[in-house]
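Q: Sequence in, structure out?
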Amino acid sequence: MKPFPLPIDDAFFQRLRGMDRELFLRLKRKGCPRRGCGSPLDTSNYPRKVRGMGNQEELRFSLCCRREGCRHRLTPPSLRFLGRRVHAAWWVIWIHEFRTVLGYRPEIARQTLARWQNFWREQLLESSPFMRRARALGLLPPAIGDSPSLSAILRAFGFPDPESWIPCLRFFTQFP
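A: Exactly. Output:
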């Protein structure tokens, strides 16, 4: 398999940041999701030093309920971050694919790579909450069979085409 191109230019990161901002604003307009609250949400962003994005500091968009006594914190989904992981979402996907398909060995701790492999294996199980939710919402491309692998999902989104990164990252924003 021919390696897919890396989307590591400033325009790509700006595009992801803009899409994250849209997700953030959409969530902010809805108000506090806690039952019976509905109060306005205030911006409560925090810095994250993200590996895979040049180790530069990035803002993780976040919200906090304004009502005293509730103060519920809400972090919207992100195309830049894969849950609470310190590596950029695209980086975790790219490294896994290159290790699996091409035998690429990046300079990342063995324990980290093992955690990522376990993460993908567990998340992509048909019985996992993520896969059940993805199927129920119709988020999986039709080309995916009953036992999807990360490689199969990437190909279904159009890899190695560079434009396939955005729909793929949107799909993975569904991770908790």
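The chain has a mean pLDDT of 80.
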